[in-house]
Predict the structure.
Amino acid sequence: MDKQNVLTGLPDAEAFRILAESPISMVLTDPHLEDNPIVYVNRAFERVTGYNASSAVGRNCRFLQGEDTDPEDVRRIKQAIEQQTETTVDIVNYRADGTQFLNRLLLTPIYDQDGQLRHFLGIQKRLTEHEAQNSVNVSQHAIRELKHRVKNHLAMIVSMIRLQSRAVPAADTVKSLARRVESLQLLYEELSDPSAGRRTGNVSLGAYISRLANTTAHLDGRAGIRVNVDVGDATCSSEIAAKIGLVVSEIITNAFQHAFEGRDEGLLNIHLDAPAEDRVVISVEDDGVGLPEGTEYPNMGSVGGRVVAALLGDLDAELDVTSGDKGTTIRLSIPIRTYDS
Ligand SMILES: Cc1cc2nc3c(=O)[nH]c(=O)nc-3n(C[C@H](O)[C@H](O)[C@H](O)COP(=O)(O)O)c2cc1C
């Protein structure tokens, strides 16, 4: 800025032109009009949101919100407007083409020379993926989501307890329930690993199944029975991973209990393969005595069998069982997806 301008300041019209063209997105609203509508947006607002001025002016800014917008963020903005205070909120917004972005909204009241409220100014900044990951709001949101999921999983366990307590004596019930809770506990350990998609609630299924297989072998295994775990990489939502984990732990435990009857040695191979991004194939293969003649798998006469059948139905999984005097192979083909797909 030259000396002349420093002394006299910029003329209002010139200052306004500079703001209008600035790369910072801004809107002005008029709180004296019905529902505090937008009365001005600059070019950068049009670029950030994809809405042109003529379609934005006259509307309340909430049209930028959508399905995934956290009501708690909306409540904070509403409160700041009512109390006429400045606030900054990272809020999920939607562009005109329907794509989501995380908007760091800075909101401030603007007063005239008499101290009367004239407008609200909103400055929108579209956060980059990296900035979004570190947003406090986003982690609060992720925690709320996680709590919601934990609640769902607990409900699943409770329904299993009910199913089981009707069928078998107390000691066995407690043991198998402990194992199921354990499998979910391992899942949450995977979830709290930042490299495994903590923010989105997605889980590295390969790593989870590998830990689960080793833990189940440790808890329920027998000396002389070797366990081989060979897993590829696949990512899916914790919801799906929880069900897959319960099924796999059920199948492995069942193999330990029944496949090697009367034998001192044996081999259990657990294999996970992802032939496509949206499908995994898991096989549990033993070289044991094979299923008794005339036995179906899963055995609907046992609680474990009914649990497996119910979970496979939920997962929309295909089951293929081969059994003979060289052992049994249980092969599951399961569609998977992540929370963001
Ligand atoms: C100047 C100004 C700018 C705003 N900008 C945004 C925005 O970019 N994104 C958004 O989701 N909400 C924005 N809002 C908030 C909404 O307009 C509205 O106040 C909020 O949704 C709370 O009110 P409600 O509960 O009646 O919807 C802005 C509000 C004002 C006053």
